[in-house]
UniProtKB/TrEMBL annotation:
Single GO biological process annotation from the record: fatty acid biosynthetic process
GO terms, molecular function: oxidoreductase activity, acting on the CH-OH group of donors, NAD or NADP as acceptor; quinone binding
Protein name: 3-oxoacyl-ACP reductase
InterPro entries for the chain: NAD(P)-bd_dom_sf (IPR036291), Sc_DH/Rdtase_CS (IPR020904), SDR_fam (IPR002347)
Signal peptide as annotated in the record: none
Length: 264
């Protein structure tokens, strides 16, 4: 079905990929544009965002690039101001920015902890707060926050700060959903399982000894399907949650993991 978010205005943070290929945010931005949304592509890396924009433009979609650090309140306010100036409002906020630094309790520095929590969790608080104004004014809006199954399961490559930040995303999303339910704003989180994305390759290769092929094989073997998912699997769910088809779904934390968390 085409036009599922026709005429909507969407902000996607982390809209570029941190390497060759299609990550969760890039896929979400492309799908939202394909389904009729005007998309604001937010990324710290201009080149990465412009790569996404080039794909959208080639398919006849409309988007603008916004280079910003979403762990900054001023930057988040500026993103929403830029969006409303360009397109009039904000209908969809897709929070995808995230970093992962491997390490357990004794390996995680204070700086790494603070950086991870700021990028992965604080950014969602700041973006939601900034977008709440125009969404409340029009009494509608859809927020999709990307968490992880690491929020509810410990994975082979221990990443303490990452797991804690992603657990926080679920609680944060739940609180926002309840607080704003009567205003027409919905908020849901997605918990991806093991995905073969540029983010994973960039963040976790070292934890697997630097061998991308070995890492891929080991991660595939951990999935009941025998293969990891991809950015499009997360993006397709994000599109649904952002659309009016999900108008009575809010406060949900939806797992996309090929049944991985069904195992003991």
């Amino acid at each position: 079905m085409a036009g599922r978010v026709q005429g909507k205005v969407a902000i996607v943070t982390g809209a570029g990929s941190g390497g060759a290929g299609i990550g969760n945010g890039k896929a979400a931005a492309i799908l939202l544009a394909r389904e009729g949304a005007k998309v604001v592509l937010v990324d710290l890396n201009r080149n990465a965002a412009e790569e996404t924009q080039a794909i959208i433009s080639a398919e006849g979609g409309e988007s603008i690039v916004c280079v910003a650090d979403v762990s900054s309140a001023r930057a988040c306010d500026a993103i929403v101001a830029t969006t409303t100036k360009a397109f009039g409002t904000v209908d969809i906020l897709h929070n995808n920015v995230g970093i992962e630094e491997a390490g357990g309790l004794e390996d995680t520095s204070e700086e790494s902890w603070d950086r991870t929590l700021a990028v992965n969790l604080k950014s969602m608080f700041l973006m939601c707060r900034a977008a709440a104004g125009p969404m409340k004014a029009q009494r509608s809006g859809a927020i999709v926050n990307i968490s992880s199954i690491n929020a509810i399961r410990t994975l082979p490559a221990i990443s303490l700060a990452y797991g804690v930040s992603k657990a926080g995303v679920i609680a944060f999303t739940r609180e926002v959903a309840v607080e704003f339910a009567a205003t027409g704003i919905r908020a849901n989180s997605i918990l991806p399982g093991m995905m073969q994305t540029p983010f994973v390759v960039t963040s976790l290769t070292e934890a697997y000894g630097g061998d991308i092929s070995a890492m891929t094989s080991q991660r595939d073997a951990l999935c009941p399907t025998g293969k990891q998912g991809e950015g499009w699997d997360v993006a397709n769910l994000a599109l649904f949650l952002a659309s009016d088809e999900a108008k009575y779904i809010t406060g949900a934390a939806v797992i996309v993991d090929g049944a991985q968390t069904c195992r003991i």
